[in-house]
Amino acid sequence: MKKILVVALSLFLLTACESKDSYMSDFGNFIERIQEKSDSFTERDWEKADDQFSKYTGSSYEKYAEELSNEEKLQIAKYQTIYATQKAKAGIKSLGDGLKDAAKKAKKAFDAE
Question: What are phi and psi of 17, to 5 degrees?
Fold first, then answer.
């Protein structure tokens, strides 16, 4: 439930962006939350996070792109890299969990024979 509230709050903050500075701050806060909480994300949590990320890197970025300094653009690229890394780690964890589950099922099937 806490994850849903965090995502809902993030969506609210995203839509409330009134300036380039608030966009940068909100995007940074979103990435921090992803780093802190992504280890426990469900598939649904990732879908919501992907929607937010798409807004930060799509329409919100386009709104402020001309105002962004090179340093801010580099920071956004860093945010994108961090997000991709966290998502990849979650995918690897999911794959590992799937392999463990398959191994357990195979062991049970083998033991039953």
Answer: -55, 125
CB atoms within 10 A of CB 1: 5
Share of the chain above pLDDT 90, in %: 58
Report pTM.
0.70
Q: Measured between alpha carbons, how far apart are the two ends of the chain, in Å?
A: 43
- Burial of residue 53, with CB atoms counted within 10 A of its CB: 0-12 exposed, 13-18 middle, 19 or more buried: buried
Report CA torsion sign: 55, 57, 61, 63.
negative
What's the CA gap between 57 and 28, in Å, rounded?
12
Asked if residue 82 lies in contact with residue 34, where contact means CB atoms within 8 angstroms, the answer is yes
* pLDDT tens profile 50-82: 999 999 999 999 999 999 999 999 999 999 999
Distance CA 100, CA 56 (A): 35
Query: Shortest CA distance to 43 belongs to which of 10, 3, 99, 2?
Result: 3
